[in-house]
């Protein structure tokens, strides 16, 4: 179908988000069990942010990245759907979408492991530039 190539990177980023979800719980739940301050079986209420003061930073880095995958990528999903619906989701826009996904995966891996802020910001900034390009192309397609 014409314009649907962009849906592949959309699904890839959706799948990557689920990988980060599994990684988050695979590290966070054992860390909570090891902590004297929180028992995940009996804890009532609270927010993930409250765990920043209790759990090791490295565990929370994964959780923070999972949250980040629900912020700017939502704009990516909307722009990609607009481009697909208007038949503009192939060629350069599909390539830009794959670049965006690659940068977001690199951002995730960096944040969840090394987390040097300058590099993390550079990856985020590059992905934001690509995202702006996709949004501009979506605007051109509908206006």
What can you see in these coordinates?
The mean pLDDT is 94. This protein has helices spanning 7-34, 57-68, 72-85, 91-113, 117-142. With 143 residues, the protein is mainly α. α1 (7-34) packs parallel to α4 and α2 packs antiparallel against α4 (91-113). It starts with 6 loop residues before the first helix and ends with a helix. It has one domain: Four Helix Bundle (Hemerythrin (Met), subunit A) (Up-down Bundle), CATH 1.20.120.
Report the sheet-strand fraction.
under 5%
Computed CA radius of gyration, to the nearest angstrom: 18 Å
Biggest β-sheet description: none
Assign a percent range to the helix content. over 70%
Subcellular location: Membrane
InterPro entries: MAPEG-like_dom_sf, Membr-assoc_MAPEG
Main location: membrane
Keywords: Membrane, Transmembrane, Transmembrane helix
List the helices and strands and how they pair.
Blueprint (H helix, E strand, L loop, with lengths): L6 H28 L22 H12 L3 H14 L5 H23 L3 H26 L1
Helix pairs in contact: 1-2, 1-4, 2-4, 3-5, 4-5
Subcellular location: Membrane
GO cellular component, one term: membrane
Keywords: Membrane, Transmembrane, Transmembrane helix
List keywords for this structure.
mainly alpha; 143 residues; transmembrane helix; 0% strand; Four Helix Bundle (Hemerythrin (Met), subunit A); MAPEG-like_dom_sf; MAPEG family protein; transmembrane
Put the structure in a nutshell.
72% of the residues lie in helices and 0% in strands. The chain has helices spanning 7-34, 57-68, 72-85, 91-113, 117-142.
